[in-house]
């Protein structure tokens, strides 16, 4: 637990967030890729969020002699939040569970990227712009990525 508190505390040192026109949110993390993802996983597990997968794209690339730098994809969610979206439009199942990508950019900085739920699911015909679960998803993404990036 001390390591998690220390990791999150170190991550609080610096953060910036930008939202692109494509609905992507990007933040800087003061920690490395593994430490950033570890901090998110710990906070999510404490909050009762299910971690479905942790994909190490960097290791995958290395396994074929390629290098994409450090890069991990975290796949997580809560069926109580995601199921209503899927009930509204079954195609939402292509976008859920939620995902966050953490990687090292060409300058060595750790970046956190995710797609805004309203942008991601809003393109589906059955998901209303004012669906309550969109705010819940957005809040969770912001809270968990802020906690690992600041």
From TrEMBL:
InterPro entries: DUF302 (IPR005180), TT1751-like_sf (IPR035923)
Gene3D superfamilies membership: TT1751-like domain
CDD domains: DUF302
Signal peptide: 1-19
Keyword terms of this UniProt record: Signal
Domain DUF302: 55-117
Protein name per its UniProtKB record: Uncharacterized conserved protein, DUF302 family
């Amino acid at each position: 637990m001390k390591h998690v508190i220390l990791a999150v505390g170190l991550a609080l040192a610096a953060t910036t967030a930008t939202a692109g026109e494509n609905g992507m949110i990007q933040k800087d993390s003061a920690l490395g890729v593994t430490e950033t993802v570890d901090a998110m996983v710990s906070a999510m597990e404490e909050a009762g969020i299910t971690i479905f997968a942790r994909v190490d794209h960097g290791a995958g690339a290395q396994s074929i002699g390629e290098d994409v730098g450090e890069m991990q994809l975290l796949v997580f969610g809560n069926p109580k939040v995601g199921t209503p979206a899927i009930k509204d439009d079954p195609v939402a199942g292509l976008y859920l569970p939620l995902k966050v990508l953490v990687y090292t950019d060409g300058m060595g900085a750790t970046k956190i990227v995710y797609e805004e739920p309203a942008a991601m699911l809003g393109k589906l015909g059955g998901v209303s712009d004012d669906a309550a679960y969109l705010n819940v998803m957005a809040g969770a993404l912001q809270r968990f990525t802020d906690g690992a990036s600041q």
